[in-house]
Amino acid sequence: MGLLDSFEQGLERAVNRAFAKTFRSGIQPVEIASALRRELDTKAAVVTRDRILVPNELTVTLSPADQERMRALGSALVTELDTMLRAHASSQGYSFAGPLRIDLRADDDITTGTVSVDSSTAEGRVEWRAVVDVAGRRHPLVKARTVIGRGSDADITVDDAGTSRAHVEVLWDGERAMMRDLGSTNGSKLDGAPTKQAGLSDGQTITIGRTDIVFHVVPLAAPSGPEARTTATRMLPQDGGWS
């Protein structure tokens, strides 16, 4: 089942099926969904080889008659549009620069049965935060040096008898990352290969004992005002190197 089919079924579940059939003329909800999905695809910007940024604020402009019909669906329409867009972004590997917002507006210059979509990214720097996922829990790397191991004095403690007290460290300078084995008894692996020290890229997995540690760099939006708009990205190195 495609995303647009799922969207239609979700909307039908949210509103009375017979009521939904009144939308036989003018714009159809699925056409709005398709236009929004196309807007993300058109505006998608590759900021690193592992990260594609898309706008997080989308404005749908309709004719007054179409907008009135969409308003009759209440919050269900925007809820289903939000769900569909998030699923599309996930399937394409897109990252939103901030909280997703969809707004429907009317314009007398828009012909009935047509839709216009404008998009933007909330103003502010898109900061990149390094995190690691361990046993279903996400840990932000708030220090330049994060020690992971079995010991209670490690920055991130793992419950794994096959790991050393201070097993591996992850270094992060705000742009680049690397992992370094700390002389552990059983050694460390990076994407399955024994590794003592290496640069890290988004999505790579460090294995210590039976524990997998997945490294990610995630975007954080810092809007400075609700009405301001700009697009800002930060370029990360392609090779995960460290100087």
Automatic annotation (TrEMBL):
Keywords: Phosphoprotein
Signal peptide: none
Keyword NADP among UniProt keywords: no
Sequence segments annotated as region (Disordered): 224-243
Record protein name field: DUF3662 and FHA domain-containing protein
SUPFAM superfamilies: SMAD/FHA domain (SSF49879)
PANTHER family named in the record: NUCLEAR INHIBITOR OF PROTEIN PHOSPHATASE-1 (PTHR23308)
Source organism of the structure: Microbacterium marinilacus
Record has Phosphoprotein as a keyword: yes
CDD domains recorded: FHA
Taxon lineage: Bacteria, Bacillati, Actinomycetota, Actinomycetes, Micrococcales
